[in-house]
Structure formats: structure tokens, C-alpha cells
Design a protein that fits this description.
Layout lengths: L1 H7 L1 H5 L2 H7 E8 L4 H14 L6 E5 L2 E8 L2 E8 L4 E7 L2 H8 L4 E4 L1 E2 L2 E2 L1 E2 L1 H11 L5 E2 L8 E4 L8 E8 L4 E8 L2 E8 L3 E3 L1
Parallel strand pairs: 3-10
Antiparallel strand pairs: 1-5, 1-6, 1-9, 2-5, 3-4, 7-8, 11-12, 11-15, 12-13, 13-14
């Protein structure tokens, strides 16, 4: 009977900010891998069209900026921190659970059995802090012992082997054969390409 009353007085119940903050928790939602952004977008549209803004408060796809080298050019890309998962802050009840669970691309909530398990605010704060790192790091495309061709600089067209990778600085140490002797040369990621 109490549930019927609260659904009849929907505006009265959902307009209470204390209820919103007290009951809203973060949950991890499993999606089809590669569809995280689409699922988040679809869920946000659904929240708006079904007027669930007071129950489903936030949808987050944790990403981090990475610098990727493709065809000798530097590009900043958003890399998903947890591929196949999104975070949703909601007040868990039948309506919010069903809205999330039946969104196209969602496979399940993360939890025990059929019961979604919330994650702590501290865990979410750590994830958000990690995604907001100021300087993007390089998406490592080179590893020790990779054979590479130098494409720029005084050693252009030389072939060498990667000896050391400094991902933070975007630099590699490559061993090249000069006068029959292996010589280490420090290069930028942009100056080499894998063979």
C-alpha cells in the first residue's frame, strides 16, 4: 500500500533532495564492449523522455586522454578506463532498475546474482580523479625489442631495435648500427614507426 501512495504522490516524494542524496548510489553497469558511449547516450535520452531525472542522477563513461601515434602523426584519443562498463548514479528501485536494465546494449548490473551491488563514493572519486589527469599520457605503441624504422631526424631511414620506452615523455631509446657498432639514439615517438 505504501508503494501505491508514493507512486500517487510522485512529485511530493521525488522533490525531496535529502531522499535523492541519501538513497542515490553508484552502480557499475555491464555493456557490450565498444558500445559504452552509445549506451550512455541512449540511457540519458531515456532518463529525459521518461522523466527519471530524480531517480537516475548521473551516467558516466570513465575515459582518459591518451596520445596515439598513427601514420607519424600525434592524435589525442579518449581511451575507456573500463571497457565494457559504465557507472550510473541512481536511487535503486524497480523503475530505475528496469530503465537501466532494458536500455539497448546493457547486459547487466554488476553484483551478486540479480542484485546490483553499489560501489563506494571513495571508489568513484578515485575513478573520476584518474580520468581528470591533466597531462595525457602516450598510448604505448612501442615495446622493448620492437624493430623500428627511423622516419625523421639525422638518422632517417636507419633500422633499429627499441631498447627502452619512456611512455610519459613519449621517447624511446633505439639501438642503431653505426659503423658496425650498436649506438643508442633517443628519439620521439613521432620519429619512428614499427616495421
Amino acid at each position: 500500500m505504501e508503494n501505491k501512495q508514493s507512486s500517487d504522490n510522485k512529485n511530493q516524494t521525488t522533490d525531496q533532495p535529502a531522499n535523492e542524496k541519501g538513497d542515490a548510489r553508484w552502480y557499475v553497469v555491464h555493456t557490450y564492449s565498444g558500445h559504452e558511449n552509445k549506451v550512455a547516450h541512449t540511457l540519458k535520452q531515456r532518463i529525459e523522455s521518461e522523466h527519471l531525472e530524480k531517480k537516475i542522477l548521473e551516467v558516466l563513461v570513465p575515459t582518459q586522454d591518451k596520445i596515439e601515434i598513427k601514420a607519424g602523426k600525434k592524435a589525442t584519443v579518449k581511451e575507456k578506463v573500463f571497457p565494457g562498463y559504465i557507472l550510473v548514479k541512481l536511487i535503486l528501485d524497480d523503475e530505475s532498475w528496469l530503465a537501466v536494465r532494458t536500455t539497448q546494449g546493457v547486459t547487466s548490473f554488476v553484483g551478486m546474482g540479480n542484485k546490483p551491488t553499489p560501489i563506494s563514493d571513495a571508489e568513484v572519486a578515485t575513478i573520476i580523479k584518474f580520468t581528470k589527469e591533466e597531462a595525457p599520457s602516450y598510448k604505448q605503441v612501442f615495446a622493448t625489442d620492437d624493430t623500428v624504422k627511423i622516419v625523421d631526424g639525422p638518422f632517417a631511414d636507419f633500422i633499429g631495435k627499441v631498447d627502452h620506452v619512456d611512455e610519459e615523455k613519449g621517447k624511446v631509446k633505439v639501438l642503431v648500427s653505426i659503423f658496425g657498432r650498436e649506438t643508442p639514439v633517443e628519439l620521439d615517438f613521432l620519429q619512428i614507426q614499427k616495421i
